[in-house]
């Protein structure tokens, strides 16, 4: 495959593609890894290790184990950590591509272009923080070091929710620079619904956690865990909406791609 064409930012001349992967498939596999691992951990732990996953400091009646409980015991912890290892790398690539994609959509002549860039940068770094805290929560379990695990979980929750908000604002302002809000309405509606679901579940999570820790209510920890699963699923669903922006794009490893300025032309 050796075409000779011109792009706006890249000259593609006599290039050879070594590897090409559908970006949509990459996003789907990236989210599927932890989702399948979570399901397997839940089922196997619930069937074979119920005493280990239902134990709490209050020792009250509990039927739904937390994510930390089912992924913090052996051998489920190994499956969970392997799945997150496969998940983390592509997440950084997806975050960088998502930011670059929307930066290229900004109309620099619009009065809103600085605001759009600011929200895109904020969303990107919050995403990086979320990925890093997810890594920390995964590899520092609550059984190994509960105080650190708890703080990392809080960072993950805050960065996740604020990233959702920043991402929604960024996409909206990018569309505003082109006076094209209509084209992103469907995606924004889905993202807003997932953000609202996450916020409501977070309120429930904090409420039931306090009831469990301070008052030791029966089933409080189960409701806490239920909210935790809803948040995890909403988070995965939010990140998978990125495929709405990249339905046909591919991740390419090639020889012969030369970055140039926008004013460069072929001779």
Helix content: 55-70%
Please count the beta strands (DSSP E, at least 2 residues each).
Answer: 3
N→C terminal distance? 22 Å
Q: Beta fraction of the residues?
A: 5-15%
If you compute it from the alpha carbons, what radius of gyration comes out, rounded to the nearest whole angstrom? 22 Å
Uncertain spans: 1-8, 262-267
Strand order of the largest sheet: 1-2-3
Task: Sketch the major β-sheet.
Answer: 3 strands, antiparallel
**Average pLDDT reading:** 87
The topology string of helices and strands comes to EEHHHHHHHHE
> What does the overall shape look like?
globular
Q: Supply the helix-strand structural class.
A: mainly alpha
Question: Helical element count?
Answer: 8
């Amino acid at each position: 495959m050796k075409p000779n064409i011109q792009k706006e930012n890249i000259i593609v001349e006599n290039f050879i593609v070594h590897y090409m992967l559908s970006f949509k498939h990459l996003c789907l596999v990236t989210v599927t890894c932890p989702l399948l691992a979570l399901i397997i951990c839940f089922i196997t732990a619930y069937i074979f290790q119920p005493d280990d996953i239902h134990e709490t400091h209050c020792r009250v009646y509990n039927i739904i184990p937390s994510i930390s409980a089912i992924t913090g015991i052996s051998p489920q912890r190994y499956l969970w950590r392997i799945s997150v290892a496969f998940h983390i790398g592509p997440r950084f690539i997806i975050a960088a591509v998502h930011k670059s994609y929307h930066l290229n959509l900004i109309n620099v002549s619009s009065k809103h272009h600085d605001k759009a860039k600011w929200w895109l940068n904020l969303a990107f770094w919050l995403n990086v923080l979320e990925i890093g805290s997810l890594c920390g929560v995964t590899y520092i379990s609550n059984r190994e070091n509960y105080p650190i695990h708890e703080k990392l979980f809080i960072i993950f929750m805050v960065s996740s929710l604020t990233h959702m908000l920043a991402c929604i604002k960024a996409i909206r302002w990018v569309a505003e620079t082109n006076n094209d809000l209509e084209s992103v309405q469907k995606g924004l509606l889905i993202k807003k619904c997932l953000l609202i679901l996450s916020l409501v579940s977070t309120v429930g999570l904090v409420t039931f956690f306090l009831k469990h820790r301070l008052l030791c209510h029966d089933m409080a920890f189960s409701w806490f865990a239920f909210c935790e699963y809803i948040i995890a699923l909403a988070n995965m669903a939010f990140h998978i909406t990125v495929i709405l922006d990249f339905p046909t794009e591919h991740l390419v490893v090639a020889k012969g791609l030369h970055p140039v300025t926008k004013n460069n032309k072929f001779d």
